[in-house]
Design a protein that fits this description.
6 helices; seven-stranded mixed β-sheet; alpha/beta; 30% helix; 179 residues
Length: 179
């Protein structure tokens, strides 16, 4: 039996609580483990979740919790891809934004179609607290602010997520809205 990870549960709750309530459509970049989808669906069972995933095995796993899975490499997706998701209430990057080869290009593609009341959420590892170097980009808070600003967003919320008892946050949760 898998033991509960209090930090992972707290992070999932923080992300879920920052998402728009009763969203019609959420787009999650990267399959993850499905915990966030299950958590959000408990409160809002009519929300449709689309997972965007490049990896075949992860995309297959996502079919167990997402209504639709799109297997695509976001950095090479064209404007037609983003247009077919223009009604999304939120795009979510849970540990995936910093792993993209071209995060600015992806954010610009989203911003081109994002409705004025929709948002982008990004949960990003804090490079100052990172124990592993699995990200392509070390995005500290200033770099995140610049990245979103240059793509046409304003930061509506910034939340520092810290594991119990530490002063340095391990992650930042960013909520960005169209500027």
């Amino acid at each position: 039996m898998q033991q509960a990870n209090p930090f992972a549960e707290a992070r999932t709750a923080a992300i879920s609580n920052t998402l728009p309530p009763n969203a019609r459509l959420l787009v999650q970049v990267g399959a993850g483990d499905g915990a966030l989808a299950r958590h959000y669906h408990r409160s809002y069972p009519t929300t449709s979740l689309v997972v965007v995933e490049a990896d075949t095995a992860a995309a297959q796993r996502a079919t167990s919790f997402a209504e639709r899975v799109v297997q695509v490499q976001l950095e090479s997706a064209g404007s037609a891809f983003y247009r077919h998701l223009q009604w999304a209430d939120a795009w979510l990057f849970d540990g995936t934004l910093e792993r993209l080869a071209e995060p600015a290009r992806v954010l610009a593609g989203i911003r081109a179609v994002l409705n004025y009341d929709a948002c982008v959420l990004a949960c990003v590892s804090n490079p100052a607290a990172a124990t592993e170097a699995d990200a392509r980009h070390a995005l500290d808070l200033a770099a995140l602010q610049n990245l979103f600003s240059e793509a046409g967003f304003r930061l509506a919320a910034t939340i520092a997520i810290s594991p119990g008892g530490t002063d340095t946050p391990s992650h930042f949760l960013i909520k960005a809205m169209p500027a």
